[in-house]
Amino acid sequence: MKHWNEGAFFWAGLVLVSSLLFLYGILVTPDEPLAWHPVLTLLAGMFPWTGLLLKSCKDGISESRTEDLRRNLCLLVWGLVTLTVSNQFHVQRALAMVLSFPAFAMLTGWNIDRMLREEGGLFAGWARVSVLTCVLSAAGCVLYVQNSPELFFGGLVLGLLLLMMGAGIGIALLYYRDGELAAWLHAATGALVMFILYVFLLPVAKG
């Protein structure tokens, strides 16, 4: 456990908690069975860590030492096998998410801890994927509400918030070179988006 220290587990816990909270309304109290493809559900549920998750899957192999590499490969196999089996055998989507989220959260937490220790304040790769995640999410949000007048204003506000948080994450990483601040901004982004969705947008959509 030389490199899997308390820091990696702390960040993994932050990713896991924020991701499960973001999907709470779908996993716990769905209005209808969860019909999304498991991979799409995973990527949506990992927001705003989605881009960092994809980077972590790559870094887990290319940037890890032998000891960490064995554990990272185990996590990748765990998560991918769970998604594959659930898709092939039509396992309940919520169960597939519950089983696969810990593996990907631990992989992402490991990568956050690694970057904080080894990147030397150079977080360009982290900044790119995180800002891109926020920009694509904002664009998708605006496109989604274009044909829904009752959701249009709220969707624009949410899109603007995503762009602002993405800019904040980029500034924290590239200007201040503060990875911990960026990680907490990720968590704050997830909390704010969840609040706007479940308090303002989804009730109007259901109505």
Question: What is the tally of helical segments?
Answer: 9
- Distance between the ends: 51 Å
Shape summary: globular
SS class: mainly alpha
Number of strands: 0
Catalogue the unreliable spans. none
Q: What is the rounded Rg?
A: 17 Å
Give the H and E element order.
HHHHHHHHH
Strand content: under 5%
The main pleated sheet reads as: none
The percent range for helix content is over 70%
Residue-averaged pLDDT? 83
Looking at this protein, list some descriptive labels.
207 residues; mainly alpha; globular; 9 helices
Q: Quick summary of this structure?
A:
With 207 residues, the protein is mainly alpha-helical.
Protein architecture, described:
By secondary structure, the protein is mainly alpha-helical. It contains 9 helices and no strands. The longest helix has 28 residues. The radius of gyration is 17 Å and the shape is globular.
Topology:
Blueprint: H1 6-22, H2 24-27, H3 38-45, H4 50-62, H5 66-88, H6 93-118, H7 124-145, H8 149-174, H9 179-206
